[in-house]
Records
---
Amino acid sequence: MKIQILTLALCCIAPALLPAQNPHNATQPTANSPKPIAESHLKNIRQLTFGGDNAEAYWSPNSQWLTFQSNNAAWGLQCDHIFAMDVKKAANNQAYQPRAISGGKGRTTCSFFMPDGKNIIFASTMSAADTCPPTPNLRQGGKYLWPIYDSYDLYVADLNGKNVKRLTDTPGYDAEAVLSPKGDKILFTSTRSGDLELWTMDLDGKNLKQITFDLGYDGGAFFSPDGSKIVFRASRPKTDAEINEYRELLSQGLVAPTNMEIFVCNVDGSNLRQITNLGKANWAPYFHPSGKKIIFSSNHHSERGYDFQLFMINEDGSGLEQITSESIFNSFPMFSPDGKKLAFSSNRNNGGTRDTNVFVADWVD
């Protein structure tokens, strides 16, 4: 989810608000810009979508499919909806048409494959209205804001967008759901306790358990490869002014995602610890296949605020390494379950437009 220019959805940033780039999409250097780095961890980069805002592309258990959200107007979309694509068929193929999953009603966000690889969980406002919910004013007091629609609930549908089942039916925001590699738990963000906290539940929606409790936005969470830990982004308002602002915005269904850090805890919420202390917006974290490192998106290095690159860091907070340098927006990294590939979203190769597309690359350690 985006900071001074981050709309694709609640869980993501708003690529549509990013400035248009030059035809080669290279980050424009300034006196304070870091020296561009070679993207040596990424080889054989392939583009999978072509047009609109496409993001949060997450792998199927067999490392062959991705589920993602898009507002591509060429597909007749008015707001974000969920799709699934065969990675091999989509690679560099502008004619490829992904499968529609969410059915076209309401607004949807944050999809993830269920353990069987045949069903996808996602959040949707479809029960509140068939139409897209109105977008509130996302720029107030000089800050960029994210909407937190209280009409979001969690649903599961098959790869044909059929057999839709509703998993949550509680007032407030339920979204950002992911699955444990063990195949036994759903992890999601909810306001059901009065704040944006992380919760787990069984695959049928039962056995709910709250695992974070500190004031602030806890979200964008993922499990470690062995399913024993959770990594997530969080805001932590501390001063009276920050706390009052956070609570006032949340009462309006809004959050300001301009100050977030990466945290890790055990799957039950114990041993909570902060991993980054970089300032600005550090988000979209995901565990490296080793379970000992975390890849994430950050603008901590940028004077402009909207230059988001991928970085990797050890779980103890050491060894920060920059992974990308091409374009001014790179985020939503996810390693394939087999550890061979990295899916991510980027503004690269968009012909100078504001389009954000999904890419996949071979990962080189």
Note: The chain is about 5% helix and 35% strand.
---
Amino acid sequence: MSTESILKDTSIAFLESYLNNASPTGYESEGQKLWMNYLKPYVDTFITDTYGTAVGVINPDAPFKVVIEGHADEISWYVNYITEDGLLYVIRNGGSDHQIAPSKRVHIHTKKGIVKGVFGWPAIHTRLRDKEESPKISNIFIDLGCETKEQVEAMGVHVGCVITYPDEFMILNENKFVCRAIDNRMGGFMIAEVARLLHENKKTLPFGLYIVNSVQEEIGLRGAEMIAQTIKPNVAIVTDVCHDTTTPMIDKKVEGDLKMGKGPVIAYAPAVQNKLRDLIVDTAEANKIPFQRHATSRATGTDTDAFAYSNGGVASALISLPLRYMHTTVEMVHRDDVENVIHLIYESLLKIENNETFSYFK
């Protein structure tokens, strides 16, 4: 299968709407509805759970179960404190970066709808001191243009409201996708494209395929932990993002040598089952799909860990997408890598037969 035509115009249109929609950890439902609507023609049924993980299923009656997975949530903030003069102080919901916050526009999600605001910051003229402060959780604040706490509350804003950035999707230099929350709604997009290709190419799988878009990864892999217990899969192929280490100020001796545009990244880690990883590597080589390798030491830090150590052990592997500027509003990936991750997962699925393939002692 050639990667030249993997992403259709309709695929890119869905990707743009999916990324532009806010889907903060704990509040993923609207994004999940968009994703399920796109996936619906390509699956037999859906599973959802109490916290919002969504699963499209092909061959739901098959006893052998294979998961392909991404996560749906994006980092965000919570309103933590409202001052008497109407300013908001925040705490993290996931790994939000305090250093990029000053001067950013924000959306505060309330029952009355979106309330707009900005992260304020003192002017440079007032900071020319021997020791100027850096942004940190204790001093970044949001200004809604209000003068009192009562005005803030009248807008529907209260402690616990979730806050997101409104930055939207764009394409740079024809082949770089840029947006907030590419980590990891791009994963949800890629697994949906795998399902589309299986449907359009009329592929029949000898197992049940569970296309899983998990919630709450950004605060500890929680959605994957829950849905793994529900599905009880035999195999799980997870996709997430990793760092493009050619980015300035990243040490390759620490983070590895990875670059966007050079292909999917196949992980080496204790949670990655050796035979499943080897199947993926062999598939990449057989199909001339470029790939990179990454050693992740004790834990991958992704939903791979949650699936691998569930239900007495699930053969699991991780295929990552190289990304620049993780946990900022300008996360960047290469279109070729997106297509090659899709291609690699698709071809790997066609090589899976049954659990005996991954028996450790055979």
Note: The CA atoms of residues 24 and 74 lie 5 Å apart.
---
Amino acid sequence: MLMVIDSMIWTEKYRPSTFEEIKGQKEIIERAKAFVRQQNMPHLMFAGPAGTGKSTLALVIAKQLFGDSWRANYLELNASDERGIDVVRNKVKNFARTKSIGKVPFKILFLDESDALTREAQQALRRTMEMYTQTCRFILSCNYSSKIIDPIQSRCSIFRFKLLSKEDISEIVNKISKRETLQIDDKGVDALYRITGGDCRRLINILQATSSVSKKVDEKTIYEIVAEANPQEISKVIEIALSGNFINARNLLLDVMLKSGLSGLDIIKAIQKEIWGLPIEDKQKVTLTEKIGETEFRIVEGSDEFLQLEALLASFVVSGKNKENVG
């Protein structure tokens, strides 16, 4: 529980308070700046993966619009906590129908994870957005815009967020490392980007957890903290299997699983990430990817993961030998 609280504090500590501090999403930020300059905006929908700045941008818009009085004019609700129609009829409606404090003629209601709302709640929300548009603007945040009903989507200007680039992640890492006096090498930054995939929230949590162990953050420490397989070890397993040495590949894979405490599905995902970086023909990569998909399905359906992973390695051995025979 303490780790969760500490991580939340770190995330809040490094949350931007101005548009300039937000990394990535340049086009979206420019549109948001225009709304602030005009002191007017339509209903907005922020759609995209987790950890890309949706909640942060909504908060920055509110702070820039309302200044010191932003707390009185901004309400954030998480739709995944209260998914039913009552939250729309009570909390949302009560906030939306009262006038704002200050020069801006409307308040902002930020509804996080709005794709978790039931269809009945979304229908009620649609009507509320229509009735109180003079006194309140809605910002809906979701991971999947397809789960939001069309009448709500048509009332919103949709902003589609994307995962942060490696350059953006590097800038954030450098900023945090300077403030927290951390030593992070280039391999460590590469590992952080590979693991997070551009998710800034997860990046901050990993850095916070890693820094509690050592101020020197390297690739090995990062993989130990996140309990993921080192890509170099997974690549070695695949290469040994493709060379035809099934026993050594199986022993190394078992060692990696036991050392890192990984499940069969974790290993499958790690193998899939490494396949397309191997120095083999694309046709063989496609064949191996098909085998990986079959193995993943069987494990999900309840098959023994060790047996299925052994079968996967066996198919890699056969693929490698077939390639040699063709050559």
Note: The beta strands are 43-47, 74-78, 107-112, 136-142, 156-160, 183-184, 216-217.
